[in-house]
Amino acid sequence: MTDAALLALVDGTLWPGTAFGARGQSTGEVVFNTSMTGYQEILTDPSYCRQIVVMTAPHIGNTGVNAEDDESDRVHVAGFAVRRASLSVSSWRATGSLDDYLRQRGIVGIAGLDTRALVRHLRDRGAMHGALVSDGTSDAAALELARDAVDINTLDLVGEVTCRAPYAWEERAESAWYPMWPAAMSARVDAEPQRSNGASPSLEAGSADAPHAVVYDFGVKRNTLRLLAAHGCRVTVVPARTPAAVALEMAPDGVLLSNGPGDPARLGGLVANVRDLIGRVPVFGICLGHQLIGHALGGTTYKLKFGHRGGNQPVKGPRGVVEISSHNHGFAVAAEGLPAGVEVTHVNLNDGCVEGLAWPAREVFSVQYHPEAAPGPHDADPLFEAFMGAMRRR
User: Fold this and answer.
1) CATH number of the domain to which 97 belongs
2) Once rounded to an integer, what is the mean pLDDT over residues 363-369?
3) Which position among 163, 233, 287, 353 bears the catalytic label?
4) Which end of the chain is least crowded, N or C, by CB within 10 Å?
């Protein structure tokens, strides 16, 4: 088997490198992520469904992989591209190497790329589709694969990543990772017995008098669920296309609309469902959930040139407070066309795009970025307490 690998882009450019992970062929939208760490969480984030992710940090794989850092039940990226894949693993938490992890899951990787040049190319030309090959495919054949690849933005990616049936979630985030939590909250989280392994078949999980959140799974990350549980919430996760009436029959004190992949403008059925939820209970949207809320309120979305992906995006929120935040999105809500009463609460300081909305009269608010981080900074964790406050007032 050859050790050569190639990333071919639809614009005709070829990026040679060395194979790691699984050997084979894969196609997808080529995007880049500027996070310094957290590659395992990135690989398993459902929002990256069918995308080939290029990491800008030069060394990837140093800390290996482990059983705790997956953000879903499988790897969702179509391929993984790095400057240098570490051959050694150095972390007390590691149970294996990144190379073996990708091999076992059939994910094609490429190392040895000039990722600085590739990222500059994507910034200048925009995110585009490509083919990643490591099975001896010729340059010409790889380029043909890239040009024949289906446009992932036309697919029902939410349908690929959502859960198939409702379930309760009980696992909590560990206080050791959140030193900013109030002492009383950390003490409560540490004192309560930790549940088994997160998802439970029971729908009776959690304290009966705790606020009950129904989470729409458009591609939800586990850390969103862990943080809801840590903040004292009883959590029920439902499939993406659960009718609003069915969710409301579960007597939620609030509804959270999760992150997820794909073009929100193609999700008219989900938008109609969100419209039916707004005004009935407090609604909190994250990433794709935020975009769906934008559409439900009468707004529109547009595709960004190369998107925001990384853990270092500055966002200015209410009262001028700036948060460094974790992002993973290729679409954004347009500020124009939103109805009276809807506030733009957060803006991105790099490009000015809308990063948050609120309609206080209808108890709905949303952010474009990822307050659960994983990976990323924890500046936005108070948004979960804001959601809890809305549910408690309810």
Assistant:
1) 3.50.30.20
2) 98
3) 287
4) N
